[in-house]
C-alpha cells in the first residue's frame, strides 16, 4: 500500500513543498532503486539467516521509514526515507515469494502466489480509499503514518510463521 501512498500523495507534496517535476520524479526513482537493492540484499540474507526473520526485518524497515515520512518536509530526508522504504519493500516481495514457494506443495504454488498478487491489488484499492479519506482532511503527512501498521504484522509473523522444512534441511546440509 505504501508504494501507492506516494503516488496518491505526490501532487500534495509537490504543492506543499514547492517541488519541481524533477525532484518529484526523483522521489519515485529513489524508491524504485531502493526496491532493487532491497530485493538483492534481503534475498541473499534470507538464504543465510532464514526467510521468516528476514521478512520481519523488511517489514519493520519499510514501516518505520514510511511512518517517519509524516514528520519531515525536508526533501533530502524524504529521499533518504523513500530509499529505505524501497529497500524494505523490495526485500519483502522477494522473501515473501520464497516463503510461499517453500511452505506450499508444488501443486499449490501457482494458486498461492496468485492469491498473494491479488492481495497486492486489494492493497492498491485500499490505498486509494485511505488516501482519498486522509489527504483532504489530514494532509499527506498523516497518510504515511498508516504505513506503520505493518509492524503489527511482524508480531504475528514471528509468532505463527516458522521456517520451512526445506530451508531447515538445506541449512543442516551446509
TrEMBL record:
Residues 1-174 form the Major facilitator superfamily (MFS) profile domain. GO terms for molecular function: carboxylic acid transmembrane transporter activity. The keyword Chloroplast does not apply. Coiled coil: none annotated. Pfam families: MFS_1. This is Major facilitator superfamily (MFS) profile domain-containing protein. InterPro entries: MFS, MFS_dom, MFS_trans_sf. The keyword rRNA-binding does not apply. It comes from the Bacteria. It is a multi-pass membrane protein. It is found in: Cell membrane. The chain crosses the membrane at residues 20-42, 54-72, 78-101, 113-134, 140-157. One of its GO terms (cellular component) is plasma membrane. SUPFAM superfamilies: MFS general substrate transporter. Keywords: Membrane, Transmembrane, Transmembrane helix, Transport.
